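Input chain follows. Return structure tokens only.
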Amino acid sequence: MCQENIDIVITWVDGDDPVHKSKKNKYLTGRNETSHNDIAGAARYRSTGEIFYCIASILRYAPWVHKIFIVTDNQDPHVNEFVAHNFPENKIPIEIVDHTVIFGGYEQYLPTFNSLSIGQMLWRIPGLSENFLYFNDDIFLMCDNKKTDWFYDNKTVLYAKKFNVKLAAFLRWAKHLLQNHKTFGHKDPMLNAAHMMKSDFFFLHPHGPVPMSRTWYEKFYTERPDLLDANIKHRFRHPSQFSSLVCYYLDAYHQGALDVRSSKGVCSFLKPDVHKKGYMARKIAEMQANNKLMFGCINSLSETTEEEQAMFHQWICKRLNIQVL
């Protein structure tokens, strides 16, 4: 059984904050970064209340969580009133952690607008549990979770599938050829990590909670300080960056400390936009019909119509039995 404390870390940004916008604009190079949401497009940083659903789903479906940390850049999502209204009996503490805390000693790389760089540094949160789950703010749980769904008997549980490195490299080449620019999507940092680890495969995990080990990260980067510098120095996502998560999972797999479970049917990924007519209704119907879903991700909700947004807000509030103030 898994008896130790497990914390959850959520990364969050309010991209509509004028101060944040001003900081970001100072570091744009003029190389068309803002036209690509995979680099620095506005949708990458926009918040439409997803953080409330993320936190509500944790409190509703994972009451065993020891503590929730929200990592921000000198911002505050103001969740206390929301939690007090919807979960008056809540005992899980929620703490805001600033980028300056996790980048202590590496302040030259701040401000950063790079989720990959931020994710590399989460293990440096003071007081963080040995095993923890990492959420982006657009991720939400969809059913009751147990500790052992993520960690047990010194093993990490990963919902993923093996993905061939040669196939991933071919797909990246084809994408660059067809789109005529170097995008940097979900699989690209995974492929970079697999190359670095000299592996012919990596574990492709969906957009959802990811289990992490604080001491593994500490050891990995203490032994490779130059690697840490190289991977966090980019203020925006960069094609040279690698996923340290893939490094962790490959290492744990070869050590016999990783329990890989099928990701099929456990996650619903929503990516609406104004050109997908009837998309939200179809996705909600699919989610309602699948009682095996563990978690979901609502990506770039701000990119669709107000009607579609309202449909999602109404559905998830009913699902989580909450009111957004």
